[in-house]
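Table 4 source record.
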Amino acid sequence: MNLGPVVWFWRGLKGYSVTFAALFASFVLGASIMGGVSSLLVSLGVHWLYVLLLPGFFFAWMAKKEPRWLPDEKKRRRIARATLLGSIVLAVLITWLHPPRREVAPPPDEPASQPPTAPTY
C-alpha cells in the first residue's frame, strides 16, 4: 500500500499545507502531479534515482516556502481544507454521475466465440 496519499492528506489537514493538499487532491482525482513531475524528469533523461528523489525534495521545499507565499495561517488552513474536502466531494460526484460500464453479453441466438483449438498430432 502506498502511504504517500495518506501522509499528504494528514499534512494538508493538520499541517495546513496547501502543497500537500494539492498533491492529495490530484491523487484522488486521478491526475497525479507527482507522476507528472516524474514523467518530465524521465523525458529529460534524468537518472532513475533522481527521478525518485527530486520530486519529494521539490514538494518538501515548496511546503517549507508556503508561509512566505501565504503568510496568513488562517487563509492557508482554509485553502488546504477546502482543497481536501473539495477533491473528495468531486471524486464522489464523478463516481456517482458516471457509473462504471457493464459488459454486455452476446444475444442468445448468436453462439459465443470459441477459443481456437490447438491441432492434435
